[in-house]
Design goal:
By secondary structure, the chain is mostly beta strands. It has one helix and five strands, in the order ββαβββ.
Length: about 90
């Protein structure tokens, strides 16, 4: 079964990333529990330079039309702020 890992189920978490120029909302995949199962663990792993994001909406901060993509890879060096999506409405 190509693309599937037996014994390592994943869950998707909706998250928000802010770069200097864009607001990026999408899903990251994480282990269901245990080691590196928190969103902060995925973002803070020093050996990872890029974060794969699924079902993405990219909105320019300066205004303009949002763009949807099925998949992007976001360079961590461009991320200025990151948080779970449900936290977006509780501020």
């Amino acid at each position: 079964m190509e693309g599937q890992h037996q014994g390592s189920p994943r869950r998707r978490e909706r998250v928000v990333f802010e770069t200097d120029r864009h607001l990026v909302v999408g899903d990251v995949t994480l282990p269901p529990e245990g080691y590196q199962s928190r969103f902060s663990d995925a973002v803070n792993r020093p050996e990872v330079a890029f974060i794969p994001v699924l079902d993405v909406e990219i909105t320019p901060l300066a205004g303009g039309q949002a763009v949807r993509r099925d998949f992007i890879v976001l360079a961590k060096e461009h991320i200025r702020l990151a948080y779970p999506f449900e936290a977006a409405g509780s501020a």
